[in-house]
Amino acid sequence: MKNLYNLKYLALLFSFLVFVSCEEEEDSVTVEQFSIIPSTLNGRPNEVLGCVEIDQRTVSIEVWDHGIIDGDIVTIVANGTEIISTLELDGPDNPTTVNYTFTNNGFNYVALVAQNEGDIPPNTCAVSIDGTQFVLGANLETNGAMNIVVTGYDVYCN
User: Fold this and answer.
1) Number of domains making up the chain
2) pTM
3) Is residue 1 part of a domain?
């Protein structure tokens, strides 16, 4: 009987610790109130193309050539991390998908860096983040960047 009591006590303690650790993890995530898109990336200026709101930090990101499939090769950067590197874009029937967790609540970003311009400049890349679609454009002189706002923290696209 005493062993059963100890087992229940340990189970309750374990449950409490798991709950507290999950609470602290979410609380420790920075809430960015303003855009964090850097002025340059890979030695090229970033052109801010807009803002998209999403509901959660952990997402599925799909990319494909927005125009005619013409050999565009791109790198996709999220909050300073290359999440797709030197990819030749295919069409909407064959998107490239990556799962990613944005580092912040509030403002984050995704940027398109052109590795070439394919046969028809500039590069245009369709992006879908959990079903929210937008288009990024870039050339060999300028990157295209989009603010990505995780909502629910009194932070919104303006």
Assistant:
1) 1
2) 0.82
3) no
